Amino acid sequence: QVEVNFSIASTPGGLTFSPATAISNSEGYVSTRITAGNVATPVSVSATIVGTNISTSSNELIISSGIPVQ
Questions:
Q1: Chain segment 32-67, per-residue pLDDT in tens
Q2: What is the per-residue DSSP string for the chain?
Q3: Which of these, 29, 25, 7, lies nearest to 17 by C-alpha position?
């Protein structure tokens, strides 16, 4: 198991992600959840193993709608 830091280059319109740091499971998987803000935007998540220079980035994710408005 390893500790991984997640980051996003920018968070337009209140876009959030959580957790910012997580521990991988016994199979090596780790995840974070992105929550849309109020702006449609592409976003890519980066993950870095803590204490190393090993990192990767997701494919571009498209946030195509924001918080519903009534």
A1: 999 888 888 889 999 999 999 999 999 998 888 655
A2: --EEEEEES--GGG-EEE-SEEE--TTS----EEE--SS-EEE-EEEEETTSS-EEEPPPEEE---S---
A3: 7
Please give the Cα distance from 25 to 45 (Å, whole number).
Answer: 19
For residue 30, which amino acid is it? V
Long-range contacts of 54-59 (CB under 8 A, 24+ apart): none
Confidence of residue 70 (pLDDT cuts 50, 70, 90): low
pTM value?
A: 0.83
